[in-house]
């Protein structure tokens, strides 16, 4: 994987350990070993783990896992919404992890893609073939997948330039005072809990989430959220930041939310973008899952 830095990022070993936290959860010492063995380079050069990363630097990471993890074809269930020779769009169900990692070696979306799809792009590596962007395990809805490297490169570029419209539906705690708004707050790794992200000015990236009230209930609100950026856990972090966390969110909501077997009520319902090869305008929409609609009917009563 290749990362082009837009700001200074501190020591190389710390930056890489944080960057790979979700996928591999490598220790700092193991990352230092990878740097020493040449699996991680800066501007195509092998450097020290102590190297201080600067804006404009290009970091290339070829992660080597301590124990071999391979993505094998498995008959994992998911819905294909659209498919052609370059891309496909899938509807990810609740509870499905996108790709294999140290703690989740199989039964992921990637395992299912390898079983059902003959060709997938290779840019993201052997554990993430075709994966252009991700949804959290408990987030449902639309996800783009690249079948060719050319399509993958273009989609990645479009995501970076905010040329892909991503719309979510979120059920949150509390009743919002405003009917709409913009949450403009930078997101970075939480200092105390490495599994969490947080709004912070320290080692963070700009993040913007637009929201609009769809319906109000007693003690709850249904929101439409549109991403202007795509940071890890962005909607969940931003809504928690304004004291309206996503219902059922096990990380950013309340202890009572951890008891909800469905998980967080967050759904990627709409995607709009130009086809990366043909330029054709594409738009996709999927309804919320049954458990989400049942929850809304329960609140309506």
Automatic annotation (TrEMBL):
Q: Which InterPro entries did the record assign? A: PsdUridine_synth_cat_dom_sf, PsdUridine_synth_RluA-like_CS, PsdUridine_synth_RluC/D, PsdUridine_synth_RsuA/RluA, RluA_PseudoU_synthase, S4_RNA-bd, S4_RNA-bd_sf
| Catalytic activity from the UniProt record | a uridine in RNA = a pseudouridine in RNA
What Gene3D superfamilies has UniProt attached to this entry? Pseudouridine synthase, RNA-binding S4 domain
List the CDD domains. PseudoU_synth_RluA_like (cd02869), S4 (cd00165)
User: Which SUPFAM superfamilies does the record cross-reference, listed alphabetically?
Assistant: Alpha-L RNA-binding motif, Pseudouridine synthase
UniProt KW Isomerase keyword: yes
GO molecular function (one): rRNA pseudouridine synthase activity
**Top-level EC class as recorded in UniProt:** isomerase
PROSITE patterns cross-referenced by the UniProt entry: PSI_RLU, S4
- Please report the stretch or stretches of sequence annotated as the RNA-binding S4 domain: 10-73
Catalytic activity, EC: 5.4.99.-
What biological processes does GO assign it? enzyme-directed rRNA pseudouridine synthesis
**Function field:** Responsible for synthesis of pseudouridine from uracil.
Family, similarity comment:
Belongs to the pseudouridine synthase RluA family.
Name of this chain's protein: Pseudouridine synthase
Q: Write down the species.
A: Spiroplasma clarkii
Which gene is annotated as encoding this protein in its UniProt record? rluD
